[in-house]
């Protein structure tokens, strides 16, 4: 299962990004494949927050456009909405024990735990995912 991080979605959907071409190529290829794409609510909400924010994006997307992106991803036959399992906090805690606890690693540990619980691989440009022992991580733009 492919588990994308928000940074790749932002690069893929923002033609002004320096990483757009590689991120878009990867993202569109992922959707034309057969492997499930695991979407975390934290990633989807982060995408909506950042891509529509006028102080973050030079040209923010209208909310209607951004939410339609999310709707299309969620409704695709290969998409799976990831939800924390009963051991999620334990898995997250164990991942953070080896990588450092709290702070900016917390959202990454949450996504990494979702990937572990669902047998997925994190796709992200954020090298912090390499700090989590046992988590499969790929930077498709490298």
UniProtKB/TrEMBL annotation:
Pfam entry (one): PIN
Signal sequence bounds: none
Keywords for this protein: Hydrolase, Metal-binding, Nuclease, Toxin-antitoxin system
Domain PIN: 2-132
Gene Ontology annotations of biological process type: negative regulation of growth
NCBIfam families in UniProt: Mtu_PIN_fam
Record protein name field: Unannotated protein
